[in-house]
Design goal:
The protein is an alpha+beta fold. The protein folds into 2 domains: 20-58; 61-237, Umud Fragment, subunit A (Ribbon), CATH 2.10.109. The protein has helices spanning 3-11, 19-58, 116-127, and strands at residues 60-64, 79-83, 98-102, 137-144, 149-152, 159-161, 164-166, 182-185, 190-194, 216-217, 221-230, 236-237. Strands 1, 2, 3, 4, 9, 10, 11 and 12 form an 8-stranded antiparallel beta sheet that branches. A 4-stranded antiparallel beta sheet has the order 7-6-5-8, with no helix packed on it. Strand 5 and strand 6 form a beta hairpin. It is elongated and about 70 Å long.
């Protein structure tokens, strides 16, 4: 009897099955990757998004210009940065300021109905300047403040504010200051606003017959457009104009 052969057969054992261990190892590595760098990156993106939303809600909001009503000052596709703190500490909109406001109740009598989820998503995207603003937000230039008498027009076609003709260098080249005659007194706490591209702007003139007479309540002003932040080639600050420097206030003082 070949005992050596018997011993050899008995000593043979099946090869260990390592496929399960390899699969578990891959799962552990994948889990570590997901819970490690990718998880940190996701949290960082979330924190940044929340920070930007808070910044946009309370301090500075990007605003996508959807139309040519403010040309040449603002072009279609510009992202302006709206200073929401400009009028929070006692200051009020001045003549010549470019402001963003909610036109509900003045330019738009009824806010358009929207699906709640769509409204939230669109509002967040608009707050980050990623899409056009809601249908109730507008950007215009302040021409008259509370107590002002604004008239169109004098013999040279200029708008008069409190009897003082105003030369408006920001008006779109070739446009008259207004083709619509008007003579209004701005009620206290409201604004008379117009676009710089007068022939393409739907502004206070177009709402004279509506409730409120085209006046925008100061409380509905979101903020003052302070800078053009995008595109890069148009980076600039929107300096306050001196066009109204000689206009006397309603009480006779210059403002």
């Amino acid at each position: 009897m070949d005992t050596e052969a018997q011993h050899t057969e008995r000593d043979r054992s099946p090869e260990p099955d390592t496929s399960g261990e390899e699969e578990r190892s891959r799962s552990v590595r994948l889990s570590a990757l997901v819970e490690g760098p990718w998880r940190k990156a996701g949290l960082l993106v979330l924190v940044c998004a929340v920070f930007l939303l808070l910044l946009s809600t309370y301090v500075v909001q990007p605003f996508l210009i959807p139309s040519g009503s403010m040309e040449p000052t603002l072009q279609v596709g510009d992202r302006v940065l709206v200073n929401k703190l400009a009028y929070r500490f006692g200051d009020e909109p001045r003549r010549g300021d470019v402001v963003v406001f909610d036109g509900t109740g003045s330019f738009v009598q009824d806010a358009p109905a929207q699906n709640p989820v769509t409204r939230v998503v669109r509002g967040a995207a608009a707050a980050l300047g990623l899409t056009a603003p809601t249908g109730t937000d507008y950007v215009k230039r302040v021409v008259g403040v509370g107590g002002d008498r604004v008239v169109c027009c004098d013999k040279r076609g200029r708008i008069e504010v409190n009897g003082q003709p105003v030369d408006e260098p920001y008006v779109y080249p070739g446009n008259p200051p207004s083709q619509v005659p008007f003579d209004i007194v701005v009620p206290a706490g409201t604004l008379w606003v117009m676009g710089d591209h007068r022939s393409r702007s739907s502004d206070s003139r177009d709402h004279l017959g509506d409730p409120g007479g085209g006046m925008v309540p100061v409380d509905e002003v979101i903020g003052r457009a302070g800078w053009i932040g995008w595109p890069v080639g148009r980076w600039t600050s929107l300096e306050r104009t001196g066009a109204f420097d000689r206009v006397p206030a309603a009480g006779g003082r210059h403002g």
